Amino acid sequence: MQPTKHHLLILLTLVTTHLHLVASWGSLGHRTTVALSLLHIPQTHPAHTLLSSLLHNQDPTTAGLFPDKIRYIPSFAYTAPWHYIDALDNPPHQCSINFTRDCLPSEGCVVTAIANHTERVADQTLPFWQRGQSMRFMLHFFGDVHQPLHTENLSRGGNDIDVMFDRQRHNLHSVWDTLIPKKIVEIAGDGGVLGAAQRWDLGNETEAAYAWAEFLYSKYGHDDRVAEMVDHVCVHDAVECALRWASEANAYVCSYVMKGGLEDLESKDLGEEYFEGAVPIIEEMIVKGGRRLARWLMMVAQDLHDAGISGVDEQLLCRNSEGSPGCGAS
Ligand SMILES: *[C@@H]1O[C@H](CO)[C@@H](O)[C@H](O)[C@H]1NC(C)=O
Ligand SMILES: *[C@@H]1O[C@H](CO)[C@@H](O)[C@H](O)[C@H]1NC(C)=O
Ligand SMILES: *[C@@H]1O[C@H](CO)[C@@H](O)[C@H](O)[C@H]1NC(C)=O
Ligand SMILES: *[C@@H]1O[C@H](CO)[C@@H](O)[C@H](O)[C@H]1NC(C)=O
């Protein structure tokens, strides 16, 4: 059954109302990816207008958490497989993604989801709210496709691997999803992350994400090597690009995440040396995700612009900024 617009609005309201209750530190990586992308889009670029219009002015880092809020709602359970691609490889000995083998057409995966919503976000024949939903999915999937354990079937992407992190038991998946990013921001005392750490203590994840993004921007924003790494962006060949990104992340499953095998992972506290080694990988994932998202957003907005379609809800924009040029008097 297709949810109606009315249902969706009720749902969105519930989700937004309860956001402060359910938002976990786990969303820090997602928020930071989106926050970093915003820093890479020039202020006057139409991508900003497209975003504020499709998201009804919601903060984009919050909008990008929407897919995690709905995936456990039964009528949206079909979206759960869109968050990952379960590579049936053999880590730590052999890592690889094979699209035919790993992405079931009946369910889809993060690669086909990126292609699907890239198409839908710009599809003028779709109702506006559906394009907004696709935008929220995209803001989210740029994070997921860069997380190594979202590209691995073994032990459900590490969810079934019990490990120690700072003297507490966790599963390996959540170590990568939430604990490492959280610790990076918490312990960072110098070099510019301090602002983020202070805000983190105040418990405002949105501010922590923006501050961490600013730190990453100043550290890598003008690094030409990073520019090369993010060069290809999928708008017209989305499956091919998304598959390449997933394969990059998947390679880290063998080269670092599960490098020593299960026994090794279970024999030590991952909050120590393992954490130190993971920091540059997490930073690289977020930087790549954020910069690729920025390029994607700009290309989508530019394509709409070139086609002579503003791609935005003019009425909504005018309601939000009465008296601006082109809006007329009301
Ligand atoms: C990918 O998987 C399919 C289906 O299992 C198989 O036929 C194909 O040979 C695989 N391709 C590669 C490059 O391993
Ligand atoms: C594309 O997204 C729409 C809206 O979420 C969904 O109904 C449809 O099943 C998706 N198609 C594919 C091939 O994933
Ligand atoms: C994929 O992972 C699941 C859950 O750990 C496991 O039951 C299944 O056997 C795995 N599939 C393959 C082909 O290894
Ligand atoms: C976090 O900070 C943002 C931006 O300053 C603010 O809009 C938001 O209300 C804050 N959230 C909480 C839960 O304090």
From TrEMBL:
Residues annotated as signal peptide: 1-24
> Would the keyword Nucleotide-binding be found if you checked this record's keyword annotation?
no
| Gene Ontology MF terms in the entry | endonuclease activity; hydrolase activity, acting on ester bonds; metal ion binding; nucleic acid binding
Does Signal appear among the keywords?
yes
Coiled-coil zones: none
Q: Which Pfam families match?
A: S1-P1_nuclease (PF02265)
Q: Which InterPro entries match?
A: PLipase_C/P1_nuclease_dom_sf (IPR008947), S1/P1nuclease (IPR003154)
From which domain of life does this come? Eukaryota
CDD domains documented for this protein: S1-P1_nuclease
Q: Which UniProt keywords apply?
A: Disulfide bond, Endonuclease, Glycoprotein, Hydrolase, Metal-binding, Nuclease, Signal
GO BP, one annotated term = DNA catabolic process
Family label? Belongs to the nuclease type I family.
What is the protein name given in its UniProt record? Aspergillus nuclease S(1)
